[in-house]
């Protein structure tokens, strides 16, 4: 996929060099950055994408929201980052709740 095709699948990252959510901070600013990283990794670091995807699937999320038009590899990156910042409790249920709120 081209960079432009990948960007079209993002909800927050538009291809802009500057994060428009940076001023207000918070979750939208993080999501912009995560989506930007996903676009970059999809083009240059398939090994990292695959390791995140393996983690995502091992946690039983393979079919989570499979009809929402968000690529599973992007969801895997989001799950990886969610676990990094929230790696306690029931991360799968917490991730689903967080994902439903922002996607």
How would you characterize this protein structure?
The protein is mainly α. It has one domain. 61% of the residues lie in helices and 0% in strands. The protein is built from five helices and no strands. The protein has helices spanning 3-7, 26-44, 46-58, 72-85, 91-102. Helix 2 (26-44) crosses helix 4 (72-85).
SS class: mainly alpha
Number of β-strand runs: 0
The biggest beta sheet is recorded as: none
Helical percent range? 55-70%
Order of helices and strands: HHHHH
Strand content: under 5%
Q: Counting H and I runs of at least 4 residues, what is the number of helices?
A: 5
The total tally of domains equals 1
Shape: globular
Poorly predicted regions = none
Q: Compute the average pLDDT.
A: 95
Radius of gyration (CA) equals: 13 Å
In angstroms, what separates the terminal alpha carbons?
Answer: 22 Å
């Amino acid at each position: 996929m081209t960079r432009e095709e990948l960007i079209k699948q993002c909800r927050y990252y538009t291809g802009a060099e500057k994060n428009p959510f940076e001023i207000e901070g918070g979750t939208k600013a993080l999501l912009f950055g995560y989506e930007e990283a996903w676009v970059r990794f999809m083009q240059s670091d398939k090994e990292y994408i695959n390791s995140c995807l393996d983690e995502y699937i091992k946690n039983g999320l393979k079919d989570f929201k499979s009809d929402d038009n968000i690529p599973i590899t992007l969801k895997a990156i989001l799950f990886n980052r969610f676990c990094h910042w929230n790696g306690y409790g029931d991360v799968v249920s917490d991730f689903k709740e967080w994902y439903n709120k922002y996607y």
